[in-house]
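Task 17 of the worksheet. Students: predict the tertiary structure of the chain below and write it out as structure tokens. Keep your answer in the requested format; marks are given for formatting as well as content.
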Amino acid sequence: MEGPLAANVKPLSFDVPDFGKIYVSGAITAIALGDSPAFAGQKSGFADLSNAQVFVQKVDGAFQFFAQGGTYSFPTVGVPYTRSGATNTALFGALPQAFVKFVSGNFSIEAGKLPTLIGAEYGFTFENMNISRGLLWNQEPLVSRGIQANYTAGPVALSASWNDGFYSDRFNWGSASAAWTINSSNTLAVIFGGNFGTTAYGTSATPVAQNNDKQLWNVIYSYTSGPWLAQGYYQYADTATGTAIGIGKASSTSGVGVLVNYAVPNTSWNLSGRIENITSSGSATDGSANLLYGQGSKAWSFTVTPTYQSGVFFTRGEISWVSASSTAAGSAFGSTGNSKSTARFAVETGILF
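Model answer:
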């Protein structure tokens, strides 16, 4: 969890003889949000159960595991909201993440439904500074089936994974991460992912264009000091081409983002903010893929999220703004898809038990 929310420090646990201690925790959260203007075919406001999940895990010894089950949603700026029940069905099912892990000293290997190595934001609302994910996050994989190896050597942490990218069930993706903890306040990470073949297959969980990225790069710098946590990152992605995948010209996105959290001293309050900018390549006539709001479109967003947490209970509000330019007809915001900007107002409350 990135913060500002904190997990329960005393989760339910029980001992299994000759096996070890099992921890059980979870998240139950509700969300209310409204988009202005409303997206095509949607109401202007929603109320939903954004998370009802249980986490079961073993975190010590040579053999470890993690299983996360329940319902969830992924509110994201600049796109319509999808309710949690529909999200489960369309994306990763009732068990969105589950893996086993073997640990030996500074080395570990894990296999199953794994969280991606890519990006500065995690998937689920309670893991992040903001309620809604950002524009850059929406270009990244979230959960991949595969195997991952990890190794730490002093201040350096390395990970490498062979997986199915955007949950395609085609195991032709690789990803790797190298993180350097410079000192107690500063960390630098370089992350790579890419499809080593082509995948002429898509579902609601597997966007064809993004799943055929030949290269997807992050450079992420993190800073922590007292009440401050800040991250800045650059992201670049470039697709394959081919008739089978419907991309006539290699298409790319590039973007930058800054995420900041300030823990107000001597209170239970945090204030988080995110600002980001993303551009896509190409035009509607050159065979490029539509990776954003039309070939060659651009967008920026700003999000601010105050959070209050007391024990396992929390409440937070949010205002976000997305502005796009060079958009294609019908591909942006509002009832006709022709609005150039959209605002979102959201509240989320719940418990992390």
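Marker's comment: The first strand starts at residue 12 and ends at 16. The chain has a mean pLDDT of 97.
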